[in-house]
Amino acid sequence: METSRTGIVRSILLALMSLLLSPLLTGESPAMALEGSARTILSQPNNPVRLSIDLAGFTIERDQLKPNGRRHLMASHPGAGINVAIVLEQVAGQASTGGCIKHLRQLKKGQAVSRGIDVAFSTTRDMPTLEYTLPRFQGVRLDQKSLYACLAEANVYATMHVSKVQYTEADAALFQQLLTTVRLQPGPSPRITAHQPNTAAPLFSVEPVRYEQPNEARTIVP
Question: In whole angstroms, how large is the CA radius of gyration of the chain?
Answer without folding.
Answer: 17
